[in-house]
Every structure is written in C-alpha cells, then in structure tokens.
Amino acid sequence: MDFRFTDEQEAFRKEFTTWLNTTVEEINKIYSPEFAENPESWEAEGRDFQRRLYDAGYSGRHYPKEYGGPGGPLEEEMIILETLEAICPKNRMPFFTTMGLIAPTFLACGTEEQKKHFLPRMLDGTHIWCQGFSEPNAGSDVVNIATRAIRKGDCYIVNGQKVWSSYSHMADYAVMVVRTDPNVPKHKGLSYLIMDMKATGIEVRPIVQINGDRNFCEIFLEDVEVPRNMIIGKEGEGWKFALATMAFERAMGDVAKASFHSMLLEKMFERSRNLKRSGRALITDPRVRQQLAQCWIEVVVLKSHGYRNFNNLMERGVPGPESSIGKLLWSEMYQRLTETDMQLQGLFSQVMKGSRCAVDDGYGQNVFLHSKGSTIAAGTSEIQRNIISERILGLPKDATRAKKD
Amino acid sequence: MDIKLNEDQMEMRRQARRFFEKECPMDYVREMFEDPRGFTDEIWSKMVEMGWTAMLLPEAYEGLGMNFMDLCVVFKEMGRALIPGPLFSTVLLAGETIKTAGNDAQKQKYLSGIATGKLRGTLALSEPESGADPDYVKMAANSTQDGFVLNGTKVFVFDGQTADFLIVVAKTSQGGDTFGDISLFLVDPKSAGISITPLKTMDGTRKQCVIEFRNVGVPQEGLLGDRDRGWSYLSKVLSRAQVGLAAENVGGGEKCMELASQYAKERIQFGQPIGAFQAVKHPCAQMFVEVESSRSLLYWAAWNQDYGNNKDAKLSASAAKVYCSENFKNIACATLQILGGIGFTWEHDLHFYLKRAKANEMAFGDSLYNREEIIRTLEG
C-alpha cells in the first residue's frame, strides 16, 4: 500500500499551483471581485479563466489530443481539480457542469463527429453547457420525465419544462433527457438530446436560491426544433449509459471536495484563533476544540476514501463498492462542517456579506446555506441510500416501486 | 499511489478468516466470554503456529519482520470474529513497547519469547485518575540500592490475569515535565506485593483487571528503556494500539452490517421482507457508508504507522480511533434495532459485538481524549 504521489506528480502539483496563483491574481485585476453577483461578468470571467487553463494545457488534462486535450494522465487531472478547489472554487463554477458532466458524457458516448466538434470548444472556454434532467414532476423519480420529443422530418420537436439547471442562463448548449417514446416502460423511452440554447422556443428563468445566488434556472421548451443527429447514443438508451461511465469524474470529484473542505476547515481554524468569546480565543475552549477535531477527522476520512476509490478505479477500470458512497460522505460532511462554522461564529453567524460585523465578509454564511443543496442535487441522500441498499447489499425493492418497474 | 491490499495480504486475510471460522466459531466466543481465563491453550498455540505473535517482530528475535498493515489485516478479521485472548496485549502492547524501548538482552528474552508463543505480556498504564495519557500517572517507582520499588494501582489492564510479564508505567521523578518523569518497568506478575483482581466488564471477550502494587521490588535490569524517557517510547506504541483497535472495529462493524442486511432480507412483516422498507434499508445503507469509510481511514492510519512521519502517525491513529470506534458502535446499535426483539436477547450473537464496540471505544483514549490530542498536535 502507498498513499504517496510520485515525485513527478508532486512536481506537477507545484507547477500548477504556481501557475494558478499567478493566473487568479491576474484575473482578479481584470474582473470585479463581486463578479459572482453579476451573471454577465461572472460568465465573461468564467470563459476567460477556462481559456487560460486551456492555453496553459491544464484544461481537460486527460482528454486525448484529437479532442483538444493535452492527453495527460488522469492523476494529473485529479491534482488539477484538487488544486482548483483549494484555491479558487468559484472561478471554475461556470464550467462546472460542462467539464464535470457534459464533456465526460461526450467522451464516453458521443459519435466521433460530436467529439471532434464539441469537446475542443468545451475545453477552450468557447461553449458553456448545462444539463436538463429534473422536471417539476420528475425529481428523484426519473420515470416521470414528461418533456416530449416528437420526430418530424429531420428534427425532433421538443416541448416541456426543465428545472434546477445550473448555469443555463449563460449556457450555449444543453444536454437534456427527453421522452422520445411514450409507449415503452420506464427508462426505455428516454433519450439524451443536445440543444442549442439560442434556438427558438427556449426560455430560461433564473431561480433565486436560498443564498441569493441565481445560478440555477428553469428552462421552458416550446416547439424547439432539434436536428436528429443531435442525440447522444441511441434513442432510448443513451443517457443511462452515459451516467454509468462517469465513475472517474465522480471519484475525482470526491477528492476535489476533500480539498474544498480542507480549505473551509483552515478558515475555521483561523477564525477560532482570532474570534473571542467570554474574553478568550475560541481555540482555547475545549468544546470548540472537540468540534474542530471532529471536522478535521471527517476531512481526513473523505481524503483517504477519495484516494482509495480513485486508485481502485484506475486499476480495475470499473467502480468498486466503495465508489457509491462518496456523494453521501462529502455532502453530509459538508453540512456538518458548515454547521460547525456557524456555531463557532455564535451570534456573528447571523451577519451576512456586506454588513458591519460580518465574519470573513459572510463567506461562511454563504457556504452554510449552499451546503443545504448538496444532499439534494445529483441524487438525493435518500436515493443514494436506496441504490446502496438495493444494488450493493441486495435488499429488495419496496413493493410500490417494484411494481412500477 | 497504491491503496489496496496486496496479494499476500489478501491471502493472509483468507487464511485468518478460514482459521477463525473453523477454530473459533461463536460457540467458542460464548464459552470464553464466561470463562475467567478467556482463551484455551489449544487455540493460543494454534494462533502462534499461524505466525501472528511473530509478525511485527524482527527476524533477529525469531520474528517475521512484517509490517503494521499486515497485522491490521489479521486484526480486522479478529474483530470480525470477536476473537478472545491475549494476542492484542501480547503483540501490540508488550511486543511493540519492548521493540521500541528494550535493550538487546531484553529483546532477546522477551521478543523471542513472544514470537515463539512462550511468553505473553501486557501493559499496565491506566490508573484510577488517569486514562491513556501520562499527565496523571501517580504510580511511584522509587530508586533503591539495587533497583526500584513500585507502589500504586493500575486499572483496566488487558489480559493481566494470564500475562507472564507486565510492563508497568511509573513515575521516576517528581515535579518535572509531564513527559520527562516517566519510566517503564518489566515486572514479573508473581512478584511479592502484587495482587491481581479481575474486573467483571461488559465485554467478556477481552479480560481486564486491576493490579495493585505494594512495595514491589524491581531489579535494575527491569528498567525498560532510558529512565525518565518512558513516554517517548509509549506514545508511538499507543498510536499503534489505537490503530489495532480501529482494525478490530472495522471487522466488527463489517460483521454487524452483514447480520443486519441478512436479517432484513429474511424477516417478513406486512407481507414483505422488512429490508424493502426504507426505514430499514436506509440504516443498512448507512452501515455500508460507515464500514467503507472506516476502512479507508484505517488504511491511511495503518500506512502511516509503517511509512508516515511521527506527526501523521499520531494524528491518523487518533482519527482512526475516534472514527472507527464510533462507527462500530453506531452500526452495532443500528443492527440491534433492525433485529428487533431478537437483538435484545442473549441468544443472538449481536450483543457480543455491541459490548466489544463499547469496550474498544473507551480503551487507549476515548473520543474526547483523542479529539483533544488532535488539536494539541495540530496547534503545537
């Protein structure tokens, strides 16, 4: 067993960290520090940042040369993601869906033509992509997806509504799950369509979130024409296959989360040294020390588990049982971590960005609220536990769900 | 990076599991739970034959020179099968302390004795007013003309009743630095002035006792390591003991999870297996999360005992002790709830796991202690 990176990999991490620090400094000079609150400047900044990653050879590090990547090893991509999360998580958000979900789907399931056309434009910052999975009546229950795509000549005509789609207000393209065949049972009638977000009949409305952000949206689709070659995989199967092939991205995502949590925890230690209650620094309070230590333990758990999972995946090529728990681990830990941060801040935990008395200009308040979405997005905790208990432990399905399938 | 057991370790795991299933089934565990000695000579000598007492010891002392990760593979299986007996105390407490602190003559005698199964030893550390830390050790070792004389009381000594020798932690200086006034002594438990009282603890699969020392003479050769430097040896041993317990906890948790999901598949209520209800399947899934994440942390902690620096070895051991203990306990409790009434009976095996989980949680630094140690280590 060996938890170490090679000397080469450590050197790469150093090189990338140096590059990233300089780049973030340059970016911050160009764009307003408030960019995240203004979608237009955030979008411009996001594309610029992605372009710089690309020009320096750090975008899609493991993507083959023929699709615009530098063809590097997966370990380097993981190091890049870890470093981005630790230094500038917000800068990569506009391309988070594009690089974390859409690009790997194309790589796994796209036609040669699709890969050659779309992938280089994702990697170099030209196109931001969004996804359309959930609908008002299809959250965890994907079987309910009602958005219809009806074939008409060389096109599909799409009608319906999508929701909880991040960055679709800045997106150039979308990948959406639609029903192409209403006459076959459950997942079988669903297909994965590529849509030009500038097409006629698409309306995007940002939703104001719990923390005031507006980066996820509703998408209304009315008689949208989609050329028939804009489908990923075959009709009726593409998207399921796509989800199954994203194990690497998920594993790297877990490791990157550990890195983000580490950064949060570092801020919490910092606060505990500086904030005082009852006349003394929080870090000297035994109750606070217990809480901080528990957070520290959980971050170490996430890190060692993430590396173990990634390493097994590299060797076996298929995800092992340990790979299904990453989402539950990081999302629930994220909530405990940010909750602890609020407790550390005490009365000050109420104070939001821009106000007098705000701690770290409301950073902790924002992530505390943001963390509440993590156990819902990308498969709720309940769905994750159904999957683990049924697919890994072999427990039977509930009678009502078993019948439906 | 290479984060998985290698072929040899997989084979060791298979051998250990086969051995415990064949030689130490739950009938044996039940019998030993009630037995004052806690193991049979027959099983002990078979475990010695398996090489488990020799794994961590150098070849010069008839050991096998294997690494700590290898031992954890065996200990994980021991926890899974709830194996009673003094392997933990002999190998991890006595063996590791002598390996770290002993001179050649001591190593020759004791380590060879441990490796070949002729000697069993344990560590007498905790006192009524102190736990796993050296801060409140009161046991006095006063110098005499030809050695030392020990006075005091040690509590929660693992397997003290059946040990051939004790390693006793005592104060050799007064009023100095906490970490600079402790020494270790090799003591014959049959010495005059020693009385050993077994404790009736919740977990009968690991025997613990109180040992009282009244003017117990120890010759100069009984000093283990340098005088006043006892804690520098012990802190490393304690980290290893914590990781050893974490390995047991992962094994115990894994077994409980299997008991729970097996029962959830078989037990029918309201016309379907109870495992079809989310109120039952979600706790089962949570057990899986807790077992697999504990295993990942265990690997990190065990690897650090072999290759990490002192700080990482200590931090990861404390983290594994807290996390794996709490998960084992939570899993055992959740399993009991899923089993329902049968889980509350003596007849079902589950309660033995719950009891071991509680014992392991408290041994060698509970969660409160270890969390504080983590902050103390991080903040310097």
List descriptors.
heterodimer; A: 405 residues; alpha+beta; four-stranded mixed beta sheet; 10 strands; globular; B: alpha+beta; Butyryl-Coa Dehydrogenase, subunit A, domain 1; Butyryl-CoA Dehydrogenase, subunit A, domain 2; Butyryl-CoA Dehydrogenase, subunit A, domain 3; 52% helix; 15% strand
The biggest sheet of chain A, with number of strands, parallel, antiparallel or mixed sense and barrel status, is: 4 strands, mixed
Instruction: Give the averaged pLDDT of chain A, no decimals.
Output: 92
**Main sheet characteristics of chain B:** 4 strands, mixed
CATH superfamily of the largest domain in chain A: Butyryl-CoA Dehydrogenase, subunit A, domain 3
CATH architecture of the largest domain in chain A: Up-down Bundle
Supply the number of helical segments of chain A: 12
What characteristic shape of chain A results from the CA principal axes? globular
Question: Helical residue percent of chain A?
Answer: 40-55%
CATH fold-level topology of the largest domain in chain B: Butyryl-CoA Dehydrogenase, subunit A, domain 3
C-alpha end-to-end distance of chain A: 43 Å
Computed over alpha carbons, the radius of gyration of chain A is: 22 Å
Poorly predicted spans of chain A: none
By CATH reckoning, the class of the largest domain in chain B would read Mainly Alpha
| Helix/strand structural class of chain B | alpha+beta
Strand order of the largest sheet of chain A: 1-4-5-8
